[in-house]
């Protein structure tokens, strides 16, 4: 690529002096060659180059790699990273709390398989952090990503705190929090109970992932597509899958579940209106017979969320499917209304997700 890049402080990146290799990050490699022009908050145009160059770091708990811990590997990457960095993590259980800071985009965590490589920790919302304050839900995640262009493949993320009984307080325990934009996950496992996956902010694509939990186990204000994922409930007396936190009609956030399977134990609500303008759609999804009467929940009855939240269903099936469409709070969508939630343009995926991911 022979492209020059202008940032606001006039640094030039001479891309011609480096090469972009395309061996390891297959679905990203279409991206770096595209220079995207966009406007910053003051309306100036700037050009975004994508990452330049490529590097592999290995992590092995037994000492056979560059590092023994995942965080050590991330710490070794300089701030303002501009390279595709593949962190290859050998089979094993890595008991550590991991953070990918906002200054380190373009990192991929790749495990040896969802069943063989896991990162796990055990913080709960009521636990106290180093400053003596309670962590609260968002800071419990075993792995937290603030950076953009993160991806993870064939690896599991767990929070191993014991599952709470319904009504117990302070037991939220996230396995993973994604707060960066344009994150791609494939073949990953997310294991927890209450609040497993914090789909906090940004555009995200989850492909063939396994997500397990009991209460609101996918939650936040992300704009995300879940494709071919298994959503597995371990609820004992009552549970819920997705709690989406869209707060205004101008936000483009929402959760689209496409061709997923809903399994496990119930009864569960399939969606809850965490934010006033919550948006949740299930399409072509299988539901085992674990759906609670009514199917969905407005979180509380006080603020007329029944007028502002959007729960949609399109061509779902299985023994539990009737409970989320007919006689539920959701709308049965027609093709026209469902279409925006079925395609990767829901997350603007055309520029950052490979053509093979429809
Ligand atoms: C937008 O870009 C212009 C020109 O590069 C710069 O002067 C300005 O500070 C930038 N504004 C923001 C909010 O980043
Ligand atoms: C991830 O796992 C799947 C299923 O085992 C396998 O087909 C794929 O090649 C793996 N991908 C990588 C990058 O290891
Ligand atoms: C919405 O809920 C309020 C009370 O929370 C109720 O008075 C109202 O009739 C409901 N509206 C619809 C359209 O169901």
Report on this model:
The chain has 358 residues and is mainly β. It has a domain at 202-358: 3 Solenoid (Pectate Lyase C-like). It contains 3 helices and 29 strands. An 11-stranded parallel sheet has the order 3-4-7-10-13-16-19-22-25-28-29. A hairpin with a 5-residue loop joins strand 1 and strand 2 (45-48). It starts with 35 loop residues before the first strand and ends in a 20-residue tail after the last helix. Residues 1-35 have low confidence and may be disordered. The structure holds 2-acetamido-2-deoxy-beta-D-glucopyranose (3 copies). Residues 8, 40-42, 44, 46 line the site of one 2-acetamido-2-deoxy-beta-D-glucopyranose. It is found in: Secreted, Cell wall. Residues 1-18 form the signal peptide. Keywords: Aspartyl esterase, Cell wall, Hydrolase, Secreted, Signal. Belongs to the pectinesterase family. Pathway: Glycan metabolism; pectin degradation; 2-dehydro-3-deoxy-D-gluconate from pectin: step 1/5.
Strand composition percent = 25-35%
* CATH superfamily descriptor of the domain at 202-358: Single-stranded right-handed beta-helix, Pectin lyase-like
Mean pLDDT: 87
Let me know the largest β-sheet. 11 strands, parallel
The CATH class of the domain at 202-358 turns out to be Mainly Beta
Low-confidence segments, ≥5 residues, pLDDT <50?
Answer: 1-35
**Gross CATH architecture of the domain at 202-358:** 3 Solenoid
Strand order, main sheet: write it out.
3-4-7-10-13-16-19-22-25-28-29
Which molecules are bound besides the chains? 2-acetamido-2-deoxy-beta-D-glucopyranose
Radius of gyration: 21 Å
The CATH topology of the domain at 202-358:
Pectate Lyase C-like
How far apart are the first and last residues' alpha carbons, in Å? Answer: 26 Å
Tally of contiguous helical segments: 3
Q: How much helicity do the residues have?
A: under 10%
EC number: 3.1.1.11
Keywords: Aspartyl esterase, Cell wall, Hydrolase, Secreted, Signal
Pfam families: Pectinesterase
Enzyme class: hydrolase
